[in-house]
Amino acid sequence: MKFLIVLAVVAFGIWLWRSRRPPPPPAKPRSRANQPAEMARCAACGLHLPLADAERSPRGVYCSKEHRRQIEG
Question: Is 21 helix (H, G, I), strand (E, B) or coil?
């Protein structure tokens, strides 16, 4: 019986301690700089590069103007 009383007092103490802790700070939203860049593959040589740096056309994505000219003629 003593064991149950001690256990109840300890459980109550833990509950009281946890209920009085301040809430965790809100999570900061992730900025665009922390996210990985969207990648693309050159249709001519297979090089992977950021889509923002790629040379785009209706027929594909290229790493340079020379590769675009090679494929599209």
Answer: coil
Q: Is the pTM of this model over 0.90?
A: no
Q: 44 and 71 in contact (C-beta within 8 Å)?
A: yes
Alpha carbons 52 and 42: distance in angstroms, whole number = 13
pLDDT digits (tens, 9 = 90+) for 18-36: 998 888 888 888 776 777 8
For residue 60, give every residue at least 6 positions away whose Cβ sits within 8 Å of its Cβ, in sequence order, or none.
43, 71
Structure tokens at 24: 């965790």
CA distance 37 to 42: 16
